[in-house]
């Protein structure tokens, strides 16, 4: 089934109103395009839980900093539509920038301290851009459920908080990170990696797996966990430049000194101009 394409807010609301009139439940999967297996897994989960599946494809300029890769962010609309078609998407919302941010648009959504740590430290303003566009999508689509991937863990925390604070009647569903056979998290940015950097990038998950096992066994101090990850990356990803390696509380994203409770082990590493993130959640 070919998905319907809606380019305006009026059109997408019309299609959703029609689905609602038939008693259908609505799922939303927000994306920036360059779709891959990770997005397909979100489509599958959403389609299994709801009657009408909406995907948004919008490269949001507000979540890119001045020195980031907005202009070269991969755009593949025809391939994206094929993936939507093959994975049961009913309607694709593909607005132009002016549709989402018309002249005179001033309002932004900030989530306070949740964007101060991890990626927020090196990408100021990023999560304000994320929260703003997702709030607009929730208002436009009014989904019953919205689906996100666990690789972008900080993003999911920000969106949960934003939805709760602004009283959006939507259930946030976070799905497991999809990985290649060698462990590298599936990401649109992997396409930027050279063959050598692609090989080295597998060390991110290798390091996380190693320390997750260690934390479960003996709950070492966070400083030891960070040191082990740095040693692993130095040995297996010598071209990688570490942005951060942090052990944080999985609820409020603040740094923790001990791993005796549930922790999120998160990292970001640059290979040339390509920035990769990954994480592992270790329970108490």
Indicate the CATH architecture of the largest domain.
3-Layer(aba) Sandwich
The coarse overall form would be globular
Across the major sheet, the strand order is 1-4-3-2-5-6
What is the string of helix and strand elements?
A: EHEHEHEHHHEHEHHHEEE
Text of the CATH class of the largest domain = Alpha Beta
By CATH, the superfamily of the largest domain comes out as HUPs
Low-confidence stretches: none
Question: The CATH topology of the largest domain is what?
Answer: Rossmann fold
According to DSSP, the number of beta strands is: 9
Could you estimate the helical fraction of the residues in percent? Answer: 25-40%
Q: How many domains would you count in the coordinates?
A: 2
Strand content range: 15-25%
> What is the overall number of helices?
10
Major sheet size, sense and barrel closure: 6 strands, parallel
Structural class: alpha/beta
Radius of gyration: 19 Å
What does this structure look like?
This protein is of the alpha/beta class. It folds into two domains: 4-175, HUPs (Rossmann fold, 3-Layer(aba) Sandwich); 188-282, Pantoate-beta-alanine ligase, C-terminal domain (Pantoate--beta-alanine Ligase, Chain: A,domain 2). It has helices at 9-21, 37-49, 77-86, 97-100, 119-122, 126-141, 153-165, 195-200, 202-218, 222-236; strands at 4-6, 26-31, 52-57, 91-93, 145-149, 171-175, 241-248, 263-271, 274-282. α7 (153-165) links the parallel β5 (145-149) and β6. The chain is globular and about 55 Å long. The relative contact order is 0.13.
């Amino acid at each position: 089934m070919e998905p319907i394409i809606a380019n305006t807010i009026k059109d997408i609301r019309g299609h959703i109103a029609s689905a609602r009139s038939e008693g259908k439940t609505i799922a939303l999967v927000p994306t920036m395009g360059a779709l891959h297996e990770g997005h397909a897994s979100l489509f599958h989960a959403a389609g299994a839980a709801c009657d009408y599946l909406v995907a948004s494809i919008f490269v949001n300029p507000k979540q890119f900093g001045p020195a980031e890769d907005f202009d070269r962010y991969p755009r593949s609309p025809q391939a994206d539509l094929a993936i939507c078609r093959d994975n049961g998407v009913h309607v694709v919302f593909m607005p132009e920038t002016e549709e989402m941010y018309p002249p005179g648009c001033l309002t932004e959504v900030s989530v306070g301290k949740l964007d101060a740590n991890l990626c927020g430290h090196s990408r100021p303003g990023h999560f304000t851009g994320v929260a703003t566009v997702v709030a607009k999508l929730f208002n436009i689509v009014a989904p019953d459920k919205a689906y996100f991937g666990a690789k972008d863990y900080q993003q999911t925390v920000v969106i949960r908080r934003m939805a709760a604070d602004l009283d959006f009647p939507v259930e946030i569903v976070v799905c497991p990170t999809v990985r290649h056979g060698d462990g590298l998290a599936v990401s649109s940015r992997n396409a930027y990696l050279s063959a050598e950097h692609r090989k080295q990038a597998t060390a991110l998950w290798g390091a996380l797996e190693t320390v997750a096992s260690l934390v479960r066994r003996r709950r070492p101090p966070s400083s030891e966990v960070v040191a082990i990850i740095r040693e692993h990356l130095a040995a297996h990803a010598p071209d990688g430049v570490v942005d951060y390696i942090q052990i944080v509380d999985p609820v409020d994203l603040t740094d923790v000194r001990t791993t005796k409770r549930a922790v999120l082990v998160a990292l970001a590493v640059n290979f040339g101009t390509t920035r990769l993130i990954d994480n592992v959640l270790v329970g108490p």
